[in-house]
Automatic annotation (TrEMBL), chains A, B:
It catalyses: RX + glutathione = an S-substituted glutathione + a halide anion + H(+). InterPro entries: Glutathione-S-Trfase_C-like (IPR010987), Glutathione-S-Trfase_C_sf (IPR036282), Glutathione_S-Trfase (IPR040079), Glutathione_S-Trfase_N (IPR004045), GST_C (IPR004046), GST_C_Tau (IPR045074), Omega/Tau-like (IPR045073), Thioredoxin-like_sf (IPR036249). This is glutathione transferase. Keywords: Transferase. One of its GO terms (molecular function) is glutathione transferase activity. Gene3D superfamilies: 1.20.1050.10, Glutaredoxin (3.40.30.10). It comes from Salvia divinorum (Maria pastora). Residues 1-81 form the GST N-terminal domain. The keyword Transferase applies.
Amino acid sequence: MPVKVLDFWGSPFAARVRVALAEKGVSYESKEEDLLVGKSDLLLQSNPIYGKVPVLLHDDKPVLESSNIVYYIDETWPNPQLLPACSYGRSRARFWTDFIDKKVYDVGRNIWMGKGDEVEAAKDEFIDVLKKLEGALGDREYYAGDQFGFLDIIFVSLSCWFPTYEKYGGFMVEEETPTIAAWLKRCYSRETVAKSMPDSQRVIEFVGMMRKMHGIE
Amino acid sequence: MPVKVLDFWGSPFAARVRVALAEKGVSYESKEEDLLVGKSDLLLQSNPIYGKVPVLLHDDKPVLESSNIVYYIDETWPNPQLLPACSYGRSRARFWTDFIDKKVYDVGRNIWMGKGDEVEAAKDEFIDVLKKLEGALGDREYYAGDQFGFLDIIFVSLSCWFPTYEKYGGFMVEEETPTIAAWLKRCYSRETVAKSMPDSQRVIEFVGMMRKMHGIE
């Protein structure tokens, strides 16, 4: 059954899907969307509600929304298992996934899209979000224990935009949340993560272009 | 292992948990929170991130966020199974759950909390949300086929506030989305739903009081 990903190089959400498929050793065809020029018909037909990447097409059936796709990947290709084995552990993974999905990217965008005082407020909120996620990690190596897993993928994939937030927010993740910074280094030491993640410098250039398009600079 | 629910009679999210436990035949202790007077220490300790009902305490371990709780209930007490058996069906249930969680209650609140033109815009958006959910139901009896299941619980529980939205938005769900109205009747014919849902008239009175508190009328 063929596996395709409707992809975009700079999307931290598409990066989740790339990391999960790499962890499972599933080969797939990546179809890069040119979001600035226009979305493909395949994307709009596959995701009529949101029209967003990533989409996983498995045997031509669309699976939508990145955290949902990672869940589907884990259930469809069970080895190695990414979600915790116990139902309580899975409920905790889903809770923090929802928290990350609600907070990290949107608050981060308020840093690089904000004007004046908005930037400072967004930076403070972003650091508060990171500290809550640092609390959830505790003294574990990874979010569910000593194995890299579901929640690590969900969170680490968004980190490719952290240098952008640091640049425009005027802060350093390593200074504010050193435990998160150490966990990030552990995650990036995995080839599945390192090779799936967009280049942070290219993200910074992309965001600079977006800021010009939106008349912020 | 004792099961407790930190509950609030009028919460459509707490209603999800009550319906799911009723479907499973799990007996539990309901601890009613008085949200107007103040939240209990147990609620604030169990849910430090959001401080919201419902919370499921299973053997004193907290499970948070209503759709996540229904998922946990289905995995912990497997009979009858609420989620679809196949991973693609489960991905579809999670996708629409997320859509419902993002849209239904918040857009509905914009109807009864809105002022002037905001109300009309919120009403139009709410009807659009219902039409999308009507499209997802298609010609099936329930969301996953001929059995009442996970997504039915997620959506039907929010319907106890529909008469409030109809009153302040000046529309009828039955006229706008007759297929949804017929599905609602099927759901309410189940004792597990009917006995778990707050009284819609009492919700209308509660919302009238909230509007006075917020200076809307």
